[in-house]
Amino acid sequence: SYFTFSKVLSLLWLSCIVVTQALTQPWSALQAPKELAIRLIRDPVSLSIASTDFGHIIHDNPSAIFAPSSISDISNLIQFSNSLPIPFTIAPRGQAHSVHGQAMTNDGVVVNMTELSRFRNGDGIVIVADEKKPYADVGGEQIWIDVLHASVEHGLTPLSWTDYLFLSVGGTLSNAGISGQAFRFGPQISNVYELDVVTGKGDLVTCSAEKNSELFNAVLGGLGQFGIITRARIALGPAPTRVKWLRLLYNDFSAFSGDQEHLISFNETNSADYVEGLLLLNQPPLDLSFYPESDQPRIASLVTQNAIVYVLELVKYYDNTSQDHVDEDVKVLTQGLNFVQTFMFEKDVTYEEFLNRVHSEEVALRAQGLWDVPHPWLNLFVPASRIFDFDDRVFKGIILKQNISAGLVLVYPTNRTKWDDKMSAVTPNEDVFYVVSILHATGFDKLEEFQAQNQQILQFCADAGIGIKQYLPQNKTRMQWMEQFGPKWKIFQERKAQFDPNNILSPGQGIFN
Ligand code: FAD
């Protein structure tokens, strides 16, 4: 009848208005209850800081920055978002050292994790020097350099690191946290006993491999998708005091990678403590600052002759008890290695100086105005079985031939057996895989050129079926994410539905938003 027809029409009209209002009136800070609203910051300077990251490639406009004064504040913010017809997104921001907007959000709220330090009142890092199982209880917002300082005061240290220590604990545990120690101890995510997490539903949950293990495994390497890490219990071991830090130069990739793989296969007692590698390319800038000045000319000419020189980086820790035999240990480790004769260089520095080595580069780059520039980085895990193809077609091919100044290129193998496949982090499906980090820094004028080169590298890997996985991935499409996670995609999706059903958290990763 006409009456029913007009009722249906008006109902339709009404629902159109409601939907349109919801879509055209995004959540506003004014809607938040007072206790949350007072923690939302919207001044232009803060908004502009939160709209970019270390990459300076992506720009997003958050509607507010949240300055939590407690863990409950974070939980209340998430619960408030979930209560709305259209929840707003929430991006925890550690140090924003991501390069592709991973800690950002458009229109949503950025949680400034560093604000939690104030509420901790100096208790953000608690060292428990238990004889059998020492650990550090650390706020998710804390940075690794502070964890280092606090633990060495007790003669202890975390076992697995990143190369750079001004990164937040929550940020690196959301990725994996890798460096030259990972071949022995696994990534940082393999060295966590327990976590406190505020899930995407706003629940504060303590989890570990035994308790609430599904959440624990989801969050570690979970790209911020399942919850906000507010505390991590990190495994510690005895801290050395000094290190022998060696660089060995190779003009042959096969000798270089063969020696690297040999070194990471040692059993624990007589193993190296750190193994990495990097390229010296016949392209500016050629950074030889590690080497004695008197040797720099002959190193430069080795690079000119070979176009590409591979540098194996090897470290042996020591302390008072082992200083008498550390030179002998180093000799045993380097015996039979196939570097170019007479191209072995050694430094002897404190443990903390070594771990904090990238910071001195940061200081120098900042002084030259070269730190806050675009960073079109590409980080890949390459299966060991295909590393020769990669060397041939990417290092000697794309990078060397295009000659657009590669910046720093790291290349080193690591052992997959030290990763836990139950966790969200993904690796290639081989026992040994290489970490390849192509760390460009550039002006805005060259950004597109570098991004095009990265695309070309990814395209080559896809065409040649190399079976890479991206680390700190920058995928755009659902298809790319499905490929990245491979067989783990299904469980990743299921965990998302379980812990963050409204797709609120870390939208900048671009996985579910
Ligand atoms: P952010 O960039 O702030 O966040 C990263 C992601 O985690 C975002 O999605 C964010 O929403 C989420 N997140 C942040 N905090 C939390 C939390 N508490 N709980 C849940 N999710 C959270 N990585 C390595 O593995 N090895 C290296 O050697 C290494 N070297 C680096 C050197 C430099 C100079 C730089 C800039 C980066 C380096 N990285 C390295 C990469 C670094 O580990 C990642 O970028 C990491 O995310 C940085 O931590 P962050 O605190 O800046 O995280």
TrEMBL record:
GO molecular function: cytokinin dehydrogenase activity; FAD binding
GO biological process: cytokinin metabolic process
Keywords: FAD, Flavoprotein, Oxidoreductase, Signal
Pfam families the record matches: Cytokin-bind (PF09265), FAD_binding_4 (PF01565)
Signal peptide: 1-22
PROSITE patterns registered for this protein in UniProt: FAD_PCMH
Record-annotated FAD-binding PCMH-type domain positions: 58-239
Its EC number(s): 1.5.99.12
Cofactor(s) listed: FAD
Catalytic EC class: oxidoreductase
Entry's family note: Belongs to the oxygen-dependent FAD-linked oxidoreductase family.
Reaction equation(s) it catalyzes: N(6)-dimethylallyladenine + A + H2O = 3-methyl-2-butenal + adenine + AH2
The name this protein goes by in its record: cytokinin dehydrogenase
